[in-house]
Amino acid sequence: MSGLKVTIEADGGSRGNPGPAGYGAVVRDAESGEVLAERFDTLGVATNNVAEYSGLIAGLRAAAELNAERVAVKMDSKLVVEQMSGRWQIKNAGLRPLAAEAAALVGKFAAVTYEWIPRERNKAADALANRAMDEAAGIATEARPPVEARPPVDERPPVKETPKSWAPPASLSEATRIILVRHGETPMTTAGRYSGRGDVPLTDEGEAQAMAAAGRVAGISPEIGAVLSSPLLRCRRTAQHIADAAGGLPVTIMDDLIECDFGVWEGKTFAEVQEGWPDEMNAWLASTSVAPPEGESFQTVAKRVRGALATVLQAYPGKVVVLVSHVSPIKLILRDALAAGDAFLHRLFLDAAGVSTMDVWPDGNIAVRSVNETAHLR
């Protein structure tokens, strides 16, 4: 497609600003108007401006994949258009890394122009952004576009960059504190077997670990706003100990905190899977888009966990919330919070009843305070 000229229609939005956010982008042939690519995805909790920049970046990436030479960007975001055109300063430090990422992509083309258009002329991108926001808020939507019309490798949202400063946040009280607790030990834990959707109980040691984790959580904060749990028994029992220690709070079940579905690998050890499914195992380890046979990919787990976290942040702003879950969901939450790569998922070890803590501010800033605390288990 040498010499290809395209237009990019991009948009993004947030239900709450910040709130459940998403972006959309449509790439068209500049002459025929034919749609060549569509991109949309969720961003977890973010602001409108972060979502709009994310839409632009997604569109530029898609145009680069098409080997476009000249690009005309059309957006109803006056801020993004003016900033990327160089007419307005980027005063929000959190947007500068996104603008820099977009500028780096612009360098791949012979020419890029920017044009502000009214919202009614940006309906296609707006519709995709709204579908993504629905997903972020946990609202069912129609089937997504075919895989070839979406990013081919990593479907994670662009990192919601925060101002780079050693200064502490202006107000710690505005943050929602998320305490992530892995369930206590089960028979599958001790045997080193994949334990996904199987509803196994805690061992006696697991019960003791859960009680110890409850004590650690109480030490982090004596005022717990809510205790949310995966629907599986091992998490519900762990959550109940935490809720009891917090003064008899109810345990709220959150289905999207459930473990990854390991499909036919359920109950098997790593060595057994490597022997029986070597090619499938290698593909699974190489990409978060690959699922175990009859199972669920980490990308799929990440999407539902992001939606769950967005719901929590909306429902309990400024509170301390305990999420009792499993290895995969907790690793994915921490990966996104730390803006880490996928290798993080294979390098981080989470102990049974380990505790991790992070703070999330209304503007999208995140501070990870601890990862896999285990001193309470000794």
UniProtKB/TrEMBL annotation:
Active site: 183, 259
Gene3D superfamilies linked: Phosphoglycerate mutase-like, Ribonuclease H-like superfamily/Ribonuclease H
Record InterPro entries: His_Pase_superF_clade-1, His_PPase_superfam, PGM_Phosphatase, RNaseH-like_sf, RNaseH/PGlycerate_mutase, RNaseH_domain, RNaseH_sf
Compositionally biased tracts (Basic and acidic residues): 145-163
SMART domains: PGAM (SM00855)
Region (Disordered): 143-169
Domain RNase H type-1: 2-142
PROSITE patterns per record: RNASE_H_1 (PS50879)
Annotated residues for binding of substrate: 234
Assigned GO CC terms: cytoplasm
Molecular function GO labels: nucleic acid binding; phosphatase activity; RNA-DNA hybrid ribonuclease activity
Protein name: Probable phosphoglycerate mutase
